[in-house]
Amino acid sequence: MSLEELRQKTHAMGLSLPLSERTDILGAPLQIGPITLRNRLAIQPMEGCDGTPDGKPGDLTRRRYLRFARSGAGLLWFEATAVVPGGRANPRQLWINEQNLDSFSRIAASIKETSIKESGFAPLLILQATHSGRWSKPEPIAAHHNPDRAPCRIVSDDELQVLEEAYGRAARLVTAAGFDGIDVKSCHGYLCCELLSAYTRPGEYGGAFENRTRLLVNGVRAAQAAAPPGFLVTSRLNIYDGFAWPYGFGAEENMEEPLRLIGILHNALGMDLLNVTMGCPYVNPHVNRPYDRGPYEPPEPPLAGVARMVRLTGQVQRAFPGLAVTASGPSYLRQYGANLAAGAVEQGDCKLVGFGRQAFAYPQFARDILRSGRLDPGKCCIACGKCSELMRAGSTAGCVVRDGGAYRPIYERDVRA
Prior knowledge:
CATH architecture of the largest domain: Alpha-Beta Barrel
Distance between the termini: 35 Å
Order of helices and strands: HEEEHEEHEEEHEHHHEHEHEHEHHHH
Number of helices: 14
CATH class of the largest domain: Alpha Beta
Structural class: alpha/beta
Number of strands: 13
CATH topology of the largest domain: TIM Barrel
CATH superfamily of the largest domain: Aldolase class I
Strand order of the largest sheet: 3-4-6-9-10-11-12-13
Radius of gyration: 20 Å
Strand content: 5-15%
Helix content: 25-40%
């Protein structure tokens, strides 16, 4: 399919996608507070589930980030890393603590050194700090009861208050490790995200808007208080969960609460950078990762999900023009993801664009966009879902198709066996 045929297809479906051939716009610098990004391309926080039992980056972790470091992307968003041991989504999820700080320092230094050698600059390096909540192992904890999900212990207000300070401790560690910022993760159904929809929860962390946003807002405050000047405190935030009330935050037809929350983060707390996403990969992965083949038949065409991502992200960017909004979700368009990214920046839907699955499959995507203005179709993610199959099987995640030397044997062993 050509770019023009893609335009015609989306138009025939009644969808609007900003597909631009001016991909040079993605090479423009971007000022974020005191920091200047070299371009408008980001690598999203993609978990490999390949850390060590004590939370350190493993061999596959280091391999993946050195590949990312050679990409030329201006922003590298380091994957979800637990702030407490009980907040890990699997036994190999990263967990930063005083005992393993040196391992995070080494990987941060390697990323920056490799990028400087390959591209002449170091990317802005953000670490995503998380508590996996309902998806934690071995003891899942939930913000509220949900009859559609497996039963979990409901976390107490006292536990949540203690957790607020964990983001401050994490910020001190992340600073010491040489990262440039920390993300207080509030997306994809994890604990901070689930609390945003705790409409029926009693107490200080449920019911009223101020209560449901308390952990995120106070976690950001704690991280800011612990961080030195110039260190970025940001968030990857779900603005649309894709669930009906009272189990979902945000709605396509009513973005009042997400915009109100972002106003607090940006205007009151001074957050300069925000990563926008949607959906829950455990329950409705088609929302944030539209696919051709997946665990169920999605209720909408994949292009509808891509269009929603752009449309709602654009509402955020236009409401807060001084905020550097990172858009998500271009990978489904394969080689035309570059055109979508360029069009979204060009028409003001965002200021930079993050690639997730595409980075697994095609770690050099940013370099190719910046040098030639296009992506090689033979290297692109094909939205086959095999990386997600690996995660659901409890294995380590990567691209089985484009990085088969490393991940096809793992897939054959853990998924097909």
